[in-house]
């Protein structure tokens, strides 16, 4: 599935009960479940709901990096790979929405409980 994040640059990130990644061209990814971050040869397991703010300091290394790969597999696992080799992996959650990717004109993909995806395509102007 095309998440439309390939080639987008991470401009900023915020963490407050969810990790929100703001990309170029008006795209955003929101991670609401625990996730794995591999960066600079280290692995981190992070939970936006329970971990203190300082735990997310390694994510600063993703700023100004470009997404080289953005995939979601059949079970709803989100994988993002950045130009510096860093990766984010988000497993689906059985009870909650694990992650969301949104873009311009109403484009939205939501990982529903259990990993099923809900997809809204961008609105297009009809002649």
How is this structure best described in words?
It holds the Pfam family DUF6188. This protein has 127 residues and is an all-beta fold. It has one domain (10-116). Helices cover 0% and strands 41% of the residues. It has no helices and eleven strands. A six-stranded antiparallel beta sheet has the order 1-2-3-9-10-11, with no helix packed on it. A five-stranded antiparallel beta sheet has the order 5-4-8-7-6, with no helix packed on it. Strand 1 and strand 2 form a beta hairpin. The radius of gyration is 14 Å and the shape is globular.
Summarize the structure.
Helix content is 0%, strand content 41%.
Structural class, judged by helices and strands?
Answer: mainly beta
What is the count of distinct domains? Answer: 1
Ranges with pLDDT <50 over ≥5 residues?
none
Strand content: 35-45%
Helical fraction: under 10%
Categorize the overall geometry.
globular
Q: Give the helices and strands as they follow along the chain.
A: EEEEEEEEEEE
Order of neighbouring strands in the sheet with most strands: 1-2-3-9-10-11
Oligomeric state of shown chains = single chain
- The number of distinct β-strands equals 11
Number of helices: 0
Which secondary structure elements does this structure contain, and how are they paired or packed?
Blueprint: E1 10-15, E2 19-23, E3 28-31, E4 35-39, E5 42-46, E6 67-72, E7 78-82, E8 87-90, E9 99-102, E10 108-111, E11 117-120
Antiparallel strand pairs: 1-2, 2-3, 3-9, 4-5, 4-8, 6-7, 7-8, 9-10, 10-11
